[in-house]
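Help wanted!
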Amino acid sequence: MLDAQMKRGLIEVCVLSAVSREDSHGYKIVKDLSPFVAISESTLYPILRRLENSGSLSVYSVEHNGRLRKIYRITPAGREQIGQFLQDWSEIAAMYDFIKGGVEE
Amino acid sequence: MNKQQFLDALRRGLSQLPPEEIEKQLGYYSELIDDMLEDGMTEYEATERLGSVREIYENILQNMPLPMLVRTRTRPEGGWSALSIILVILGFPIWFPLAMALLAVVVSIYVVIWALVIVGFVVVLAIILSAVLFSVFFVRLLFTSLAAALLALGFSLALAGAALLAGIIAVGCCKLIIKATAAIGRGIKSLFIRREG
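Answered by r_m:
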């Protein structure tokens, strides 16, 4: 079972990644992520708020079918967060390879 | 339930939060339901998919920072009247020192508990040192009396065992206190979450 804190951090970066491909809104993000990550609509919202407060995401409203829809867009800081994650991950991957190599011998 | 019932129930569950926060949360879920309707779901299916309203708002309240829960709890309906503001200010010399005294007592109790834990670790350290001391005796007595040397070795091992046991207990107590602190924190938070009767 993945450590809860680690999982939360990973899901955050996943959300950032989903928005980085194109500006998106809550429902679409859940749909895009669901093949890869188990996330509910209710879990997503606090993450979006947190990312917005930390400056990784910006929000704007768009008219859609006569109602106002909130769209999220990634910021440069958000892209940096993704870059940092990928860098950290390649370090972890190197250690994983080393550990795996030890088991196979 | 239909969309309006869902949103009304959610609004009731979140009623103790600041109005801006309530509108943000409701806006999010309203938008979600509309998106699901566009996707071809019925209102019934959409609200089913979102899950239990109660679970949703309890989760929201639990994860709200305490200041937001407290602010509305202590705000009387209709806002502060001029009289109550004056009374609070005039009463400051009375309630403020009392509140500070209570805070000081609570903090002191907490500090004392941790001091006891530190004492526990010091005791473990002391036992370890005496174990080391006895093993030194053991080595030196080897040249004089084998029986005495063995006695010293025995003491050393026994003390090492005691240190290990005491160490395990001390670490266990640490973990317990940390867990208890977290639980008390959650408990205090729940005090501020108003439940519908």
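OP: Thanks! One thing I noticed: Chain A touches chain B through 13 residues (CB under 8 Å).
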